[in-house]
Design a protein that fits this description.
Structural class of chain B: mainly alpha
Number of strands of chain A: 13
Bound molecules: adenosine-5'-triphosphate, magnesium ion
Low-confidence stretches of chain B: 1-14, 278-283
Mean pLDDT of chain A: 91
Helix content of chain B: over 70%
Largest sheet of chain B: none
Order of helices and strands of chain B: HHHHHHHHHHHHH
Number of helices of chain B: 13
Shape of chain A: elongated
Helix content of chain A: 25-40%
Order of helices and strands of chain A: EEEHEHEHHHEHEHEEHEHEEHEH
Structural class of chain A: alpha/beta
Distance between the termini of chain B: 28 Å
Oligomer: heterodimer
């Protein structure tokens, strides 16, 4: 599998503040990678270094084999970037804005017009193509931003906070568009602090905290590693032996009694059938449901554990 | 210290691959189209056109009486004032800085405040192309405006006075155009520099206008005050007065307005033989003498003219360096 983006020891300092620290990132061609983390954790800074828009203090980056610091034009020819809170020239129409992007990319006029028509249609903006962008809603601007990214037919798309400021429905639509990029074979790097929103589109995620990537893997792997179990099963049952029975189910990592006769079971596999069988054998089963904890919880739990460990060590 | 910085900067430039001017023309075309279709420029251009027509028409009315006496009648169209109107160049010296400031004051901070900068710079161009493209587009807009004005003036000379300009007059008129462009370039360069320094377009516009007011209104007074303080005329001798006048002129020449005024006087008034203390205020109705050939007039204004161009280059270089060092994020 070929590598689209790779960084080794990438570091950025602003004075005393370390915005990105010793980042080793690796994106395979065709995957959707999510850089997730709270405000100020260094996501945007990383992206700017990958595009050659900010010089790294230390370390190296390679994007499609090019060095963004020395060969930014080569990188930017092949990489589309959707900045957080993307802006357009309000007094120009959507079409005119894209014409400028096409010209900056050196596209000849006929090719530019063809592609602009294509990307606007794909983003569902063909009816407003000749309206001034100043009249666009936030969601329309965001879709125009994605059209702007696709115009240069990039191999890699970097999207910073793509769902920020969108209503839930528009956000879902936008995530579907991102998924369609993956189908086209693009490598997608997206940064967001809305963990629950983007986890569904990412093949792999990296969790950022104060400039470091503290966890990295598929969402399932992270759930497993941090929460112990990737499934959370809620059981409501009566009977003295229920708790012991639950603990003995294969795959169960932890059982906690939340109140009265409800239990929370964390398990590595979806073992609802086995739980049902054993609870019925030892007591009375009232209800059974499963949910999969989101990345928010993984993230929160990870830092609880970290604090607990450092507290214990101190 | 500063050489170190310059060296590391030069290294950074040398290490980059690809032409720094990739995409330059795309930027120039976009900015030029913005300027020419923007309401801001259209208002100013209409204003300039009206002034040109008004002042030059007034000038033709005065000139009618002296037709036949003056070998450089055509040039008088530019410099003749008729109460209560000032001359065409007088008006231009006032409107050109305003127009130039309007062209540049939001060049860079406007891209930040519209949040377009990171999107534009993520296209395959260097910042060099963006900043130079904006500068060239501004200059081109000014040049187009000035040529249009010049054509209007010439046309009015032809139709109202039935006066075809001579070859030398055309040459002088065109040189005047070039000098005006350089003078305009200073104000555009200054407002672009402020647009890189200040985050708010309103701040950069106000600051540029403040600097212009300083030079247009207060600088000559300051020059007079300072020269009186430093070279007082205690005994009333000619030597003392001359020393004072020299100092005042020296100080006045730190103002682009003085440099421009001197250039224009010598170019549009072939009779001007030197730009000494006596002649500085004589933009209109200068002493009649034997006219100088064009080459001689050019020699007189060469220092002033090169100073104007040098200031433009200096202001652009400062803007360029500042912009290169700025973060993409606001
Ligand atoms: N130009 C700058 N000068 C100094 N510090 C900066 C600069 N730009 C960013 N930082 C700091 O670097 C850190 C990382 O910022 P960055 O924008 O990369 O975070 P982020 O993960 O993108 O956050 P957000 O979710 O808010 O977009 C922050 O602490 C920020 O204050
Ligand atoms: Mg960010």
């Amino acid at each position: 599998m070929s590598v689209a983006v790779e960084t080794v020891g990438l570091t950025k300092r602003y004075g005393d503040l370390v915005a990105v620290q010793e980042l080793n990132l690796r994106l395979n061609t065709g995957e959707v990678f999510g850089m997730l983390g709270p405000n100020g954790s260094g996501k945007t800074t990383t992206i700017l270094m990958l595009l050659g828009l900010t010089e790294p203090t230390a370390g190296t980056a390679r994007v499609l084999g090019w060095d963004p610091t020395r060969q930014p034009l080569q990188v930017k020819r092949r990489v589309g970037y959707l900045p957080d809170s993307v802006g357009f020239y309000d007094e120009l129409t959507a079409w005119e804005n894209l014409r400028y992007t096409a010209a900056l990319n050196g596209l000849p006029s006929t090719e530019a017009n063809r592609r602009i028509g294509e990307v606007l249609e794909r983003m569902g903006l063909q009816d407003v193509a000749h309206r001034k962008v100043g009249t666009f809603s936030r969601g329309m601007k965001q879709r125009l931003g994605l059209a702007d990214v696709l115009l240069k037919q990039p191999q890699v798309a970097i999207l910073d906070e793509p769902t920020l400021g969108l209503d839930p429905e528009a956000a879902l639509e936008f995530l579907a568009l991102i998924r369609s990029l993956k189908r086209d074979g693009l490598t997608v790097l997206l940064a967001s602090h809305l963990l629950h929103q983007v986890q569904s589109v990412c093949d792999r995620v990296g969790l950022f905290h104060r400039g470091r990537m503290v966890l990295e893997g598929t969402v399932d792997e992270l759930r497993e590693r941090v929460l112990g179990g990737a499934y959370r099963i809620h059981v409501q049952a009566r009977g003295a032996e229920v708790e012991r029975a639950l603990r003995e189910v294969p795959g169960v990592v932890r059982v906690t009694r939340t109140d009265g006769d409800t239990y929370r079971v964390e398990a590595r596999v979806d073992c609802r059938a086995e739980i049902a069988r054993r609870v019925v054998a030892s007591g009375e089963l009232l209800a059974l449901s499963v949910d999969r904890p989101g990345l928010d919880e993984v993230y929160a739990r990870y830092f609880q554990q970290l604090e607990a460990e450092s507290g214990g060590a101190a | 210290m500063s050489t170190q910085v310059a060296q590391s900067g030069a290294q950074a430039v040398a290490r980059r691959e690809g032409s720094p001017w990739t995409g330059l023309w795309a930027v120039v075309y976009k900015e030029l189209a913005d300027h020419l279709t923007g309401i801001r420029m259209q208002i100013l251009e209409t204003l300039m056109l009206l002034t040109a027509v008004g002042t030059v028409y007034a000038a033709t009315q005065s000139i009618r009486q002296t037709i036949g006496e003056d070998p450089f009648l055509f040039l008088r169209l530019f410099t003749t004032a008729r109460e209560p109107l000032p001359s065409f160049v007088g008006f231009l010296g006032f409107l050109i800085p305003l127009t130039a400031i309007a062209l540049g004051f939001d060049a860079i901070n406007g891209e930040y405040s519209r949040r377009t900068l990171s999107r534009v710079l993520s296209q395959p161009i260097y910042r060099d192309a963006l900043i130079l493209g904006k500068f060239l587009a501004g200059l081109a807009t000014l040049a187009i405006t000035l040529v249009a004005l010049w054509v209007v003036v010439t046309g009015m000379g032809l139709f109202v006075l039935g006066l075809p300009p001579g070859g030398e007059e055309v040459a002088r008129g065109l040189l005047f155009l070039v000098a005006t462009l350089a003078y305009a370039g200073i104000w555009m360069g200054l407002s672009m520099l402020f647009s890189a320094i200040f985050r708010q377009p309103a701040t950069s516009a106000m600051t540029a206008i403040a600097v212009w007011l300083l030079f247009a209104v207060f600088w000559d007074m300051l020059a007079a005050l300072i020269s009186q303080a430093l070279r007082p005329t205690q005994y009333g001798g000619v030597a003392e007065e001359l020393a004072q006048a020299r100092l005042q002129l020296l100080l006045a020449r730190f103002s682009p307005n003085t440099l421009y005024a001197e250039t224009v006087i010598a170019l549009l008034n072939p009779a001007v033989r030197s730009l000494g203390p006596v002649l500085i205020t004589q933009l209109e109705g200068a002493v009649l003498g034997t006219p100088l050939p064009l080459g001689q007039s050019l020699l007189i204004v060469w220092p002033q003219f090169t100073a104007l161009v040098a200031v433009v280059i200096l202001l652009f270089a400062a803007t360029y360096v500042l912009f290169q060092r700025q973060e993409v994020r606001a």
